[in-house]
Amino acid sequence: MGASPPCSRGSRGHPPFPYQTRLATEASWPAGIAAPPGSGKTLGVSLAWAWRRRHGPAGVRARTPRRLVWILPTRVLVEQTAAAIRHAFQNAGEDIPVHLLYGGGDPAADPHPPYGASTVHGAWLLHPEADQVLVGTEDMILSAALNRAYATRRYSWPVVFALLHNDALWILDETQLLGNGLRTARQLDALHAIESTFGPTQVTYMSATLDTDALRTVDAPEPPHPILQLGDEDLADPRLRARLHAQKILRHAGGVKPVKGAPRPEDVARLALGAFDGLPDDGFVLVVCNTVARARAVHAAAEAERARRRAAAGAPSLYLLHSHFRPADRRRLMAEILADRRRKLVISTQVVEAGVDVSADVLITELAPWSSLVQRMGRVNRYGARPGRVYWLDLDSQRAAAPYSAEELKAAKERLAALEGENVSPWRLQAVAPPPTRPEALPTLRRRDLHGLFDTSPNLSGENEDVGPFIRSADQLDVLVAWVEGGLPDRPRFRGEDLCSVPVYELRAAMAARPSALRAHRWDPIDGWLPVDGSGLRPGMLVALPSAFGAYSDGLGWNPDRREPAPPTPLAGAAADEDIDDDDATFAGRWISLEEHTDHVVTELAGLLGALGDVVEADAFLPPLLEAARYHDIGKTHPAFQERLGAAAQDGETPGGTRPASFWAKAPAGRGGGGGGRRPFRHELASALAYLQRMAPAGGHEAADELTALAAYVIAAHHGRVRLAIRSADRESPPPGGERRFALGVWEGDIVHWPGGGEIALSLERMELGGAPLSWSEMALGLLRRLGPFRLAYLEALLRIADWRASAREAAGDGAGRGPHAKEVSA
Q: Do the Cβ atoms of 474 and 443 come closer than 8 Å?
């Protein structure tokens, strides 16, 4: 990309538009971007960020976050946006990774990620010091930003939360489609300033119809400022001028009347097929319906009408596009649509409104809110190549307004009537005053909600707090569905790209219309597959349906009326476990001593902190973090853990006796059971308790200073199982013989060994509230209040990432132990 902003190679070999150059070179980054469809917002923003981050003046580089987080309203846009950004970086010579976050991994990086593994095993999590782009849906990223990442393992939530909220620039693309997620993002934007973050963190709102009044919230009462808009220089650029004045004449399709609220599908199909008259051999007609049900009906009618016209020359290809496909099927479908150079008719829903890079000759659209119509009209003659036409279909706003309001449709209809017969080019539409914003009574995320969501423990019923209302309205929330044949798998061994996103209310209705024998099951990380009825469905849930349930086909996607068996969801090779006792990295394929592993983690963490010196204040946080790294695994000296490794050894490989003189961190292979009959056993709880007792012996509420408390918290949290509270696990067996405190396999009086010598008898008195010493929960909540949720999560994430990186190197044989005779840690 070089020193000149931003390189021309980044945008199809052409120089940047003037506003794109301003975006890269001005002293501050805008809070909002308002530019018409087709003006290059995606490439402009991504290349400008990359230039500022890597080639701008020192002050600009320091103010530019490492992570660019791109938030989109639907899954259909994610892959296309990521591919466009990757292509731009490749042309510009920038080696910046682009990762997909939509609950199923990134097919470009990992073609076979299991369900829940997209963020757990994603390379982006291992490199918080690197420049990187994350592209995901509103549901995925905002649920993760609320510490409840959909389709992701519970115990990785805090790390994803931390990296999204620190050293990150959020781009909320097509804000008019984001629902209550927009309000939540605006509140999080304000809370970043209230709570404080590590590194620069900013949110930018982007749309062709940016409504700044909709961005006023209780903690952000003023609209965002400044807003970047096109200027006179942009209008003088002939390439951009051609796009802004591209011809597309608007007409009301008056011959197609609403019947029972909406036009008959047969009438819409005939209009669409008739629109090909006069079009060239590669003519493209796009029909946009407001609901998936109406899109399916129009597609079926067009298929029947096309069959009747089959004898006629030039019959178009026919496609149905909506948001409820398996990603793999949708990706194949989009590739077919973009590659098809014949005549084609695409019947779609709102998924084409944002970022889908298609340019139709004719648009036929149902009446919709004005902001949606502007986006839809932007898909016609997108680059000014050949004149287009736009027809709008009237709706009975009292009977067929959903998912919109009658008031929104009425306001849009008035504007369409005023533009009848005109060229509705992007520049003409910019001059049309948008309808006033209508305040809605929606849930608002407050500071107390954010603090409450910091705790990732299940509630008393074993469920997670439902963050769905902070993201979308109740009828817009989805579950992930798999279809199975021949019985349920032991674990959800599905690739994310093979799961279908289905609205909760539609699945509920489809289940009610099927016989009870076609029972649905939901995945529970503790109890496995459990039967579920319609009332038990929750957003983000993984649901398995029998193939005989139907309701899906590869070419048409989710269709609750379809009764033919659905194609079974393929199984991936490995499942993503999240049992409280899971600790797969303990079994690294070789013996690794505790001292070696500790040294590896300390080295990794020191390297991370060195690379992040511009983000994390070394004087304040380097000592407690390195202290935590040195002692994070001393709980592995507990007999239960050492017996677990011994039980995993084969043919007498056990490196010690019943009470070994050396301690091991990892073993060649594991059987997954707890040592000494304890299940679960969490060594990090034993580590944190031993550290606290050594550094802050019992003696009152002030016994643990803040640095000691922070180190102890980070030690306990480094596997995500022990954070704000110490609690016994569900169905955990108590110690034999007498009343003793116990939690997560740690029993009152258990012995662990301090490095260099000495034994510590563990006390669980910090489970108790209101006494002395200060309870664990009171200590952790004190840290949360003082550091804030974003910074505290980031500090715990750094040790976890260092541990992951060290374990990955050890598993690969890079600096790992040499077997049972490796260097030992003496008791």
A: no
Q: What is the H or E stretch that residue 410 is in?
A: helix 406-418
Q: Which three-class secondary structure state does DSSP give residue 480?
A: strand
Of 575, 567, 70, 577, the closest CA to residue 326 belongs to 567
Q: What 8-state DSSP symbol labels residue 493?
A: -
Q: Check residue 109 and report its DSSP letter.
A: T
Cα 129 from Cα 138, distance rounded (Å): 24
Length of the chain: 827
How large is the angle between the packed helices 78-92 and 327-339, nearest 10 degrees? 60
**What is the tens place of the pLDDT at every residue in 802-814?**
999 999 888 887 6
Cα dihedral value 687, 680, 461, 779, nearest 10: -10
> Cα–Cα distances in Å, from 752 out to 122, 289, 494, 644, 783?
34, 65, 40, 15, 26
DSSP assignment string, 539-587: TT-EEEEEGGG--EETTTEE-TT--SPPPPPPBPS------TT--GGGB
Q: How many H-runs (helices) and E-runs (strands) does the chain carry?
A: 24, 28
Report which secondary-structure segment, H or E, holds 692. helix 683-695
Residue found under tokens 């110690």: 735
CB within 8 A of 653, min separation 6: which ones? 591, 668, 820
Question: Amino acid identity, residue 139?
Answer: D
**Tokens 């398996």 correspond to what residue?**
326
Q: What are phi and psi of 385, to 5 degrees?
A: -80, -45
pLDDT digits (tens, 9 = 90+) for 589-628: 788 899 999 999 999 999 999 999 999 998 899 999 999 9
- 227 forms beta bridges with 32
* 135 close to 70: Cβ distance less than 8 angstroms: yes
Q: Kindly list the distances between the CA atom of residue 17 and the CA atoms of 39, 44, 382, 712, in Å, as whole numbers in the listed order.
A: 8, 8, 16, 52
pLDDT category at 113 given cuts 50, 70, 90 is very low
SS3 assignment, position 141: helix
What is the amino acid identity at position 9?
Answer: R
Residue 734 has pLDDT above 70, yes or no: yes
Tokens (6 digits) for 294: 């109406």
pLDDT of 648 higher than 80: no
Bigger pLDDT: 409 or 643?
409
Contacts of 417 by beta carbon, 8 Å cutoff, 6+ apart: 252
What percent of the chain is modeled with pLDDT above 70? Answer: 85
Q: What is the DSSP string of 331-361?
A: HHHHHHHHH--S-EEEEE-GGGGSS----BS
Which of the residue ranges 416-430, 448-462, 486-500, 766-780 has the most confident prediction, judged by mean pLDDT?
A: 416-430
Q: How far apart are the first and last CA of the chain?
A: 56
Could you tell me the maximum CA-CA distance found in the chain, to the nearest angstrom? 92
Token representation of residue 251: 């007409």
Q: Please answer whether residues 530 and 521 qualify as being in contact, where contact means their C-beta atoms are separated by less than 8 angstroms.
A: yes
Task: Report the C-alpha gap between 239 and 14 in whole angstroms.
Answer: 10
What is residue 277's three-state secondary structure? coil
Q: Tokens in use for 716?
A: 């306990």
- The beta-carbon contacts of 401-408 under 8 Å, at least 24 apart in sequence, are 402/290, 402/291, 403/290, 403/291, 403/475, 403/476, 404/290, 404/368, 404/369, 404/372, 405/438, 407/438, 408/368, 408/369, 408/370, 408/435, 408/438
Identify whether the C-beta of residue 346 lies closer than 8 Å to the C-beta of residue 283.
no
pLDDT for residue 269: 95
Measure the CA–CA gap between 819 and 160, rounded to whole angstroms: 34
Q: Express each pLDDT in 332-363 by its tens digit.
A: 888 888 888 889 999 999 888 865 678 999 99
Tokens matching residue 641 = 């853990």
Burial label, 286 (beta-carbon count in 10 A; 0-12, 13-18, 19+)? buried
